[in-house]
Amino acid sequence: MSRRAPTDAAAPRPRPRARGIRVNPVVSLSIALFLGVLAVWGLALAAAGRPPTRAYLVAGVIGEVELVLQGAVAAALLVAGHDPASVGEFLGYLLVTVGLLPVALNRARAPEATRFDAAVVAVTAIAVAVAVLRLQSLW
């Protein structure tokens, strides 16, 4: 008489992984490079003693649009079933990439903006670029 181990019917089933879908690494790299250029521009403005210009703020908004689009794609892929190694960490980086730059841009567009506001946007752009690259590595 052979004995078989009982199976636990209440055990959770693993979530099926979505095959072949991922956040495009070329897009992530291009966003990180754009944010790097934005950072260098902001540091140049700060070094010259100038507050953020209108063109600089528009470039920041363009960067934020890129980040929101990437965040929407990542969120859609998560809903479709892709399961990164650490979902909590992934969501944290996703929130940072989408939410940090608007805070710095909001302060930089104030009428009393100074050269330090350009530097704050530059440092924020560097931090968000690192978060974008980390988000890609978690994917």
Can you offer a commentary on this structure?
This protein has 139 residues and is mainly alpha-helical. It has 4 helices and no strands. It is elongated and about 80 Å long. The mean pLDDT is 86.
Low-confidence stretches: none
The tally of strands reads 0
What structural category characterises the helix and strand content?
Answer: mainly alpha
Whole-number average pLDDT?
A: 86
The domain count comes to: 1
Overall geometry: elongated
Cα-to-Cα separation, first versus last residue = 48 Å
**What level of helicity do the residues show?**
55-70%
- What kind of sheet is the major sheet? none
By oligomeric state, this entry counts as single chain
- The tally of helices reads 4
**Beta-strand proportion:** under 5%
**Helix-strand pattern:** HHHH
Q: What is the radius of gyration computed over CA atoms, rounded to a whole number of angstroms?
A: 21 Å
Summarize the entry for a quick read.
With 139 residues, this protein is mostly helical. Helix content is 69%, strand content 0%.
Describe the secondary-structure layout.
Layout (H helix, E strand, L loop, with lengths): L24 H23 L6 H27 L6 H22 L6 H24 L1
Brief descriptors of the model:
139 residues; mainly alpha; 69% helix; elongated
